[in-house]
Amino acid sequence: MTPSSASQVICAACGHPNRPTAMFCIGCAGRLPGFVATGPSALETARVLRPRHGVPMQSHAPSPVLPSETRSFWLRLGLLVLAMVIAFVGWYVYVTRRATGPELPVAAEAPVPSSLPSTSPSPSPTSANAPIAPPAAPSPTAAATESTGHPRRDASVQAVAEFYRALSEADGAAAAALVIPEKRGRGPFQEDRISSFYGSFRERLAVRSIRAVDDHNVVVKYRYQATRTKCEGTAMVETASIRQQTLIRSIRANC
Predict the structure, then answer these.
(1) What is the model's pTM?
(2) Topology adopted by domain 140-253
(3) SS3 assignment, position 52
């Protein structure tokens, strides 16, 4: 026997020579004497775990419980959905009330107050010796409605003055009649809404000045008190000439 053949390992099953360090036969894949198992094979593990016929496997480890299988999960989910529904309803009510509030201007986000205080003539003296009262100073509204020398501007100022006079008197019908037909009686220009809204103020609405910017735009300065806070506001009123009549087209105001 040669030294090389002495160092070889002969398979007992098929007689094929193998390397000295080989654990399986290269001819039949059988185990050689030098094979040392490092652990159970997959086949042996499957045989051990395979239950006998008719005997179910028993597991001592508790099965895991998913979060969706607990009562607390569904309770929390229900509370979350309820909170989202309440928040959505509150937001919807707030938006709808704000959009349909008693706001007068068509293109504004706040009511445009106005008032044209009437001026009473000074009493005449009863005798020559009686002191003569000084003439009353014209109100800001009366001074603002004086003729400007431009017929269209004068018509716009006059229409705005009449519109604001109707608001100060809470006369919804007169105010709505000075609005263009396509917006008359709609939204904030409804007659009953104008009357109820402007009739509920604590302090009567008063116009400080009315000034024409051009033929169809008029600036109005005013004040009023609806709640505890007084409003000192400015409005830009746009007019339009329809069938030889000057009417209110839109109003933009800061309060």
Answers:
(1) 0.44
(2) Nuclear Transport Factor 2; Chain: A, (3.10.450)
(3) coil
